[in-house]
Amino acid sequence: MSQTRLMMVAVSRLSEDFTIGLSTPTTSFKGFNVDKAEQTKVKTFSYKGKEYSLQHGSVVLAAITSCTNTSNPGVMLGAGLLARNARDKGLKVG
Fold it and tell me: What does each C-alpha distance from 18 to 11, 43, 66 come to in angstroms?
């Protein structure tokens, strides 16, 4: 039987933790095993006449399931505050 490991990372260290994880082997927890040369590549594309660019870490997906609001409402509150602060810092949703 496998155990799920919960690793908490302070928001102030998310960028550093993500960068370390990029080059960490996939055999390790949170490892992506991306070559150094690939880590800085940027892909550009146009959508509806506007130019965009993406690189590792550009897209974040998050989900709040229906059980979150009953079993752990603090997570919903935290997600809302994080979303508000990201918007205040210029995050755009399209």
Answer: 11, 19, 27
Residues 16 and 49 in one domain: yes
What is the pTM (predicted TM-score) of this model? 0.53
| Residue 33 lies in domain | 11-57
Per-residue pLDDT tens over the stretch 41-83: 999 999 999 999 999 888 776 666 666 667 777 888 888 888 8
Long-range interactions of 34-39: CB distance < 8 A, separation 24+:
none
Task: Tell whether 78 and 42 lie within a shared domain.
Answer: no
Q: Burial of 89 by CB count in 10 Å (0-12 exposed, 13-18 middle, 19+ buried)?
A: exposed
Say if residue 40 is in the same domain as residue 65. Answer: no
